[in-house]
Design goal:
single chain; alpha+beta; 4-stranded mixed sheet; about 35% helix
Length: about 70
């Protein structure tokens, strides 16, 4: 479902901006803090190809590392 967005990250400007912007666009945003949960960190690493950059944004089959495609 492309209207559901899972955002892995920590409380940083880019992560918070992504959460806010996707919600404002009408998406259901699920936030997973990778520094509060080892399971969330492991899931993020699977999606990101073991990259530890945040945020990692999962929308359907699409994965973006960083906000704005960076």
């Amino acid at each position: 479902d492309t209207h559901r967005v899972v955002i892995f990250g920590k409380h940083l400007t880019d992560t918070d901006a992504a959460r806010r912007d996707f919600a404002a666009q009408g998406h259901e945003v699920v936030y997973r803090n990778v520094f509060e949960s080892d399971a969330h960190m492991a899931e993020m690493l699977r999606h990101s190809g073991n990259r530890r950059s945040v945020p990692v944004i999962v929308q359907g089959d699409s994965v973006t590392v960083g906000y704005g495609g960076t």
